[in-house]
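Prompt: I keep going back and forth on a fold encoding question. Comparing notes only helps if you start from a blank page. Show me how you would write down a chain together with its backbone fold. Please set it down just below, with no commentary around it:
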Amino acid sequence: MKESAPPESPHPAKDVTQHVGYLLKRAQAALRGAMDKVLREHGLTVPQYATLELLALHPGMSNADLARATFVTRQSGNVVLRGLQEAGLITRPATADHGRARPAHLTGEGQARLAVVQAAVYAVEQRMVEAIPPQRMAALLTDLDRIAAALEE
């Protein structure tokens, strides 16, 4: 049996911990951990918080749209919505007017809770952003968007 050569690395890093994918995952894990910590103090999870943020911007989104936007499955998105509804933070009609979509909306309590937790989450993001020199921020955002687009093709 003939031995094959190992695949060529996409860049010159000799250690996998210096690969782009590894560093992106490390940054994502650090962000998620920091967000989990501050959101736990407010009785929310990251998907619940993201759902509240999205509904504040786009009232009436469906479960399917919210699940896609918060990077969870539709089944998980439905669990998130049910939890938020039971907590009195969102409302959804009991039945759909047409099709299966039941548009969700923030309640007054949901808007108030979001305002409180935004400050905590934005402080986490501020810590993250302060690690980037301001003159490099626009390029970083462009590069991250390009990375996502390249992998979504």
In short: Strands lie at 90-91, 105-106. The mean pLDDT is 91.
